[in-house]
Design goal:
Length: 76
């Protein structure tokens, strides 16, 4: 199971990476963190993809904290 964090929760990121990760590739992918400068994007993501409601969210100044806490294998 690979652990992923997404930096930049845009509509494109939601459609191209986040939604497929939790809907189609959930058997070998785990979304462990979301990072963005705009808190509204977290809300939109959680509305569009309810499976992300429990995924921790971070702001850019918390990047190192996200890495330390979530230990992702890859960043998108």
């Amino acid at each position: 199971m690979r652990r992923y964090a997404v930096c930049g929760v845009s509509s494109r990121a939601i459609g191209m990476f986040i939604k497929p990760m939790v809907d189609r590739f959930y058997h070998n992918s785990q979304l462990v963190g979301l990072l963005d400068i705009d808190p509204r994007r977290f809300e939109v993501c959680k509305e569009k993809v309810p499976q992300t409601k429990e995924v921790p969210t971070y702001f850019p100044e918390q990047f190192e904290q996200m890495i330390a806490e979530q230990k992702p294998d890859a960043l998108i």
